[in-house]
Amino acid sequence: MSQNEVLAELAEKIFGEKAKKIMILLSNHVEISDDEIAKELDMDQAELRKILNDLFEARLVKYRRARDENIGWYKYYWRITDEPLEVLLNDRKRLTLTILEKLLSLEEQAEIYVCPSCGARYSVVEAEDYGYTCPNCGEVLEPYDNSKRIRKIREAIQALKNYEPIASSGS
Ligand SMILES: [Zn+2]
User: Fold this and answer.
1) Is 91 inside any structural domain?
2) Could you write out the three-class secondary structure of 111-157?
3) Contact 74, 88 (CB under 8 A)
4) Is residue 126 a part of any domain in this protein?
5) Tally of structural domains, the chain
6) Residue 96: per-residue pLDDT
7) Could you tell me the CATH number of the domain that includes residue 41?
8) Is the pTM of this model over 0.70?
9) How high is the mean pLDDT in each 10-residue block of the chain (171 residues)?
10) pLDDT at residue 171 in the model
11) Res 165: pLDDT
């Protein structure tokens, strides 16, 4: 397996199948913008951005920010990290675990609302601020059952804990 294939597998274990698809797409490009990724994978922009942020937090991807002169906004161009796999896996295992455990405790504490139309998620404080309607599309927010997500994070933590990245050389 190439380094990129290993990273794609790791992304799938931690963040799911869509994360893997993104990683594979990235590995076939020098760099690629959010818009292009969303188009290629026929993926919702908000969901894509969430996954890209997760992958970035886990140090599996990098981005370059460039101002688009036509629209005047910044565009983000994504690529797979170029850090050596051995370093990445050994060092980031702990970091990724920390992130996942933080994520888990946030999920466990969070009272979450979700927009039934665009899927955006809001904390109870945000939901209150927005009057329980989605600021993106005006839909009434619904309470969100995050037990499935909590189970997925727990599984990812367990998988990562059981995962021995690379045996030290000579063994
Ligand atoms: Zn919405």
Assistant:
1) yes
2) CEEECCCCCCEEEHHHHHHCCCECCCCCCECEECCCHHHHHHHHHHH
3) no
4) no
5) 1
6) 80
7) 1.10.10.10
8) no
9) 86 93 95 95 95 91 90 90 79 82 86 90 91 95 88 91 62 38
10) 38
11) 61
Order the strands of the 142-143 sheet from edge to edge.
121-123, 112-114, 142-143
Distance from Cα 104 to the centre of ligand 1, integer Å: 24
Ligand 1 centroid to Cα of residue 76, in Å, is: 23
Ligand 1 mean position to 140 CA, how many Å?
8
Q: What pLDDT is stored for residue 76 in this prediction? A: 93
Q: Is residue 8 part of a domain?
A: yes
Measured CA distances, 44 to 38, 77, 156, 160 (Å): 6, 17, 23, 28
Q: How remote is the CA of residue 116 from the centroid of ligand 1, in Å?
A: 7
Show the domain range for 61.
Answer: 3-110+146-162
Predicted local distance difference test score (pLDDT) of residue 51: 97
Q: Would you say residue 135 lies in a domain?
A: no
Q: What are the E-state strand segments in 4-126?
A: 32-33, 61-67, 74-80, 112-114, 121-123
